Amino acid sequence: MGIVISGMTADARFLCRYMRTECLNYWYTHGSQHPAERLVAKIAAKSQVKTAHPAKRPFGVGLLVGAIDEAGTHLYETCPSGNYYEYTAMAIGDRNQSAKTYLEKNFESFGNADKEEILKHGVRALKASAQDTELTEHNLSIGIVGRGEGNEFKTLSHDEVRELIASVGEAAADGGEQMIVS
C-alpha cells in the first residue's frame, strides 16, 4: 500500500500512523493482510466523525491510496468530509484539473497497457498540470503497487524517473504523443 497526500502533513502523518496500527492489529488478529477497502472505510469514518464534532477540527488532508489485496489492485481517494471513492486513475492536489482531464480522456487505454505505458501516462498527466514547472527527478516521485511487483509498494529511483521523463519528452518532441495543455 502506498499513499499520496494533499493538504496538512501533520494530519496525513496521524492518519498514516492510524492505518499502520490498524494493519498490524488486523495481522495479529486474523493472520492476513487488511483488506484495502475496509481500511479506507475506517479512515473515511474517522474523518467524518471529526466533521460532526463542534469541538474538533476536521482533518485537512485528502489521501490517494494505492493498494493491492486479495480482491486485486485498488486506487482510492479519501476526502476530509469522510467520503471515499475508488477510481481507475485520479489526481489530487493543487492544479489537479489538467491532470484529471488527461486521465479522463485516456483511461480506456489503461486496461490493456503495460507497466511502462501506464508510467508514461502518469508523467504526461503531471506535465499537463505542471505547465510552468519542469518535471525533474528532484520534484517527481513515482510509486508502483501491483501483482508483478511482489505484492508490495516500490518507488522508482532518481535514475529511473529521469529516464522516464526523458522518454516521454522525446516522444512528444517527435510528434509521437500529444500533450494536453490547458
Brief rundown of the structure:
This protein is of the alpha+beta class and 182 residues long.
Q: What kind of sheet is the major sheet?
A: 4 strands, antiparallel
* CATH H-tier superfamily of the largest domain: Aminohydrolase, N-terminal nucleophile (Ntn) domain
Distance from N terminus to C terminus (CA atoms, Å) equals 32 Å
Work out the strand percent. Answer: 15-25%
Counting helices, strands and paired strands, the structural category is: alpha+beta
Unreliable sequence segments: 174-182
Q: Rg, please?
A: 18 Å
| Number of separate helices | 5
Oligomer: single chain
Which strand order spans the largest sheet, edge to edge or round the barrel?
Answer: 1-2-3-4
CATH topology of the largest domain: Glutamine Phosphoribosylpyrophosphate, subunit 1, domain 1
In the CATH classification, which architecture of the largest domain applies?
A: 4-Layer Sandwich
What's the rounded overall pLDDT mean? 87
Shape, per Cα inertia axes: globular
CATH class of the largest domain: Alpha Beta
Structure description:
The structure is a single chain. By secondary structure, the chain is of the alpha+beta class. It folds into two domains: 1-87, Glutamine Phosphoribosylpyrophosphate, subunit 1, domain 1 (4-Layer Sandwich), CATH 3.60.20.10; 94-182, Aminohydrolase, N-terminal nucleophile (Ntn) domain (Glutamine Phosphoribosylpyrophosphate, subunit 1, domain 1). It is 44% helix and 17% strand. The strands form two sheets. Strands 1-2-3-4 form a four-stranded antiparallel beta sheet. The chain has a two-stranded antiparallel sheet with strand order 5-6. A hairpin with a 2-residue loop joins strand 2 and strand 3 (72-78). Helix 3 (97-106) runs antiparallel to helix 4 (115-129) and helix 4 crosses helix 5. The longest helix has 22 residues, at 9-30. The chain starts with a strand and ends in a 9-residue tail after the last helix. 20% of the residues are buried.
